[in-house]
Amino acid sequence: MIALRPDLKVMLASQPVDFRKSVHTLSALVSEALHTSPYDGTVFVFRSKRSDRVKLLAWDGSGMVLVTKWLHEGHFTWPPIRDGAVHLSATQLAMLVDGLEWTRVSPKPVKQPAVVG
């Protein structure tokens, strides 16, 4: 299972992928295109050419997990299509999967100014 914890690493592949790809093909894509190990606990997010579908790939310690979601209405918010990946926070991932606008949420907590006086 994918646990959303504050230290969770999330990488969103910017290029859309063919949604017929299996767990094995997506794992190979992580290794070859994103130059990282699919077995390091990072959640990898893939987008389809249609903006209403998302796939999540993650190693949970005992096996590979593949989650697919289609929205009946509306669409997911995606960054501009380009090469490479975008890093997200656990909060941004939760918002993305819920179909919410996640791009306005800071990926890292903002430091509060020190209290003076």
TrEMBL record:
InterPro entries: Transposase_IS66_Orf2. Pfam families: TnpB_IS66. This is Transposase.
